[in-house]
Amino acid sequence: MDTQSPFSFLGRLAESASGLMGKLAPPQWLVHEGQRRMVLLLNHVVMQEAEAQNRLARQKERVVLARWRQFEMRLQVTPAGLFDLATAEQTPDLTITVEEQSPWAMAQSAMKGDKPTVRIEGDVQLAAEINWMADHLRWDVEEDLARVIGDVPAHTIARAVRGIANAARGVVDKVAPAMPGSKTGDEQKRESHTS
């Protein structure tokens, strides 16, 4: 007798929510405000690494279009080596499209520390700089938190969050095979050997 995993309902729920998300669009003001906050976070991380700013400064005035599902964000590189929102009229020099459509599958990949599959079109040098940043820049949340609440509390909170993240990874590893559309470990190994 073939029994279903008790977690299979999570997959169906995630897929239903994903379909609903595609039909409902957030208001434009909310999208714009969210994008402004993402630019602030990106710039905060970039400013912590002088090499990243130098690399970006060489690409000044270039425009990057990032896409996922129905969401788009245009970023322009400033002469200071940071990002700013670009207007919709500006032609992108580089387009980065996240191929994975399922938020659940993206969350699984993120929990495993994997990068999402992307399609890149456009300027090769700009793509190389963005790839370097993706490989080398990390947001040191613990350090930022320590500036606000002190070293010991920040370290304690960071350690607790790492423990929660490790537990969540364990759950994802156990639940993932039961989710619709998920790949088993063997399928992922075969896929990585064929590419």
TrEMBL record:
Q: Biased-composition ranges for Basic and acidic residues?
A: 184-195
Q: Which residue spans adopt a coiled-coil conformation according to this UniProt entry?
A: none
Mention one GO biological process in which this protein takes part, according to its record: ubiquinone biosynthetic process
Q: Which InterPro entries match?
A: UbiJ
* Keyword hit for Iron-sulfur: no
Residue span of region Disordered: 176-195
Keywords assigned: Ubiquinone
Q: Please state what the protein is called.
A: Ubiquinone biosynthesis protein UbiJ
Taxonomic placement: Bacteria, Pseudomonadati, Pseudomonadota, Betaproteobacteria, Burkholderiales
